[in-house]
TrEMBL record:
Subcellular location: Cell membrane
Species annotation: Paenibacillus anaericanus
One GO term (biological process): transmembrane transport
TM segment ranges: 12-40, 79-100, 112-133, 153-173, 212-238, 265-287
Protein name: Sugar ABC transporter permease
GO cellular component annotations of the record: plasma membrane
UniProt similarity note: Belongs to the binding-protein-dependent transport system permease family.
InterPro entries assigned to the protein according to its UniProt record, in alphabetical order: ABC_transporter_permease, MetI-like, MetI-like_sf
Length: 297
């Protein structure tokens, strides 16, 4: 029996959906459409200012203006950031999830410890690692001096700052990926492992032919989340280096051009569209490849 009765009562579910749908249109879909439209105009962040259609001029400025060298460097940094974070974060998260899934003593404690950085927030995490990487009195620098006999500038280093930001990103979100892998591992039937043990499979063969195929969907989810998260990260960069020392990415450029640049909104809108298209391409390719592997398994 239909729970909402007959007549007009049948439309109650649709009416209940109107509020979240309106919120989605106002705060997500609407601004996204306006961003695409603004990217083809010279709109300024001044109420009542005239708006003129400029075609692809903003996109030309993104790649070929006087600051095009910095733009290309930001794109390169974004790609490096995405590749390293995706590979290392998922590899480390899978390794830790496999260890915790062995029913070690205190496994709930280990889950909480590894997941804790996720709930701390970017500001707290950046503050923690800012103190840890303090070039004068930070404990990591003291450890470096004791082990290697030299000190580093960490977030103030032109050669190492970007690598440390990648490390902080991985440290903060690895626990989230670990939980997704762990949920997939715990859904694998134990009978399969017992059958493999009877057939004489090694631990690596068991992981390669039983575990990994059955957690392929978890791997796909983590890959997509890592790619999207890495290519849209700007808050950690803002809180640690503020884009200095060759640590700018496309997401940070969008933030800077929008809130710290000129009053023109056309260029940051074009940057946002380019960033979205890059993320879309990588996500589509990743989904296609991951789904293909899931089918093969």
């Amino acid at each position: 029996m239909y729970p909402f009765g007959k007549g007009m009562a049948r439309y109650v579910p649709l009416l209940l959906l109107l509020i979240p749908f309106a919120l989605y249109v106002v705060f997500y879909f609407g601004p996204s459409v306006l961003t695409v439209i603004y990217s083809f105009t010279d709109v300024k962040n001044i109420p009542g200012s005239p708006v003129k259609f400029v075609g692809l001029d903003n996109y030309y400025d993104v790649f070929f203006s006087g600051n095009s060298g910095e733009r290309w460097r930001s794109i390169t940094n974004t790609l490096i950031f995405m590749v390293v974070v995706t590979i290392v974060q998922n590899g480390a998260a899978l390794f830790i999830a496999v260890l915790i899934n062995q029913r070690l003593r205190g496994d709930n404690f280990y889950r909480a410890v590894f997941f804790m950085p996720v709930v701390l927030g970017v500001s707290v995490v950046s503050l923690i690692w800012g103190m840890m990487f303090d070039p004068l009195s930070g404990p990591v620098n003291m450890l470096y001096e004791w082990l290697f006999g030299y000190k580093d500038m960490f977030f103030a280093s032109f050669t190492h700052a970007f690598g440390y930001i990648i490390f902080v990103q991985i440290w903060m979100y690895m626990g989230y990926s670990m939980l997704i892998f762990l949920s997939g591992l715990q859904s694998v039937p134990k009978d399969l492992y017992e059958a493999g043990y009877i057939d004489g499979t090694t631990k690596w063969q068991s992981f390669r032919h039983i575990t990994f195929p059955l957690i392929a969907s978890s791997f796909t989810v983590n890959m997509l989340l890592s790619i999207i998260g890495a290519m849209s990260t700007f808050d950690i960069i803002l809180a640690t280096t503020d884009g200095r020392f060759n640590t700018r990415t496309m997401a940070y450029d969008v933030y800077k051009e929008t809130f710290r640049g000129s009053l023109e909104m056309g260029l940051p809108s074009a940057l946002s569209v380019v960033q979205f298209l890059m993320i879309l391409v990588f996500v589509v390719v990743a989904v296609k490849q991951m789904r293909k592997r899931e089918v093969e398994y």
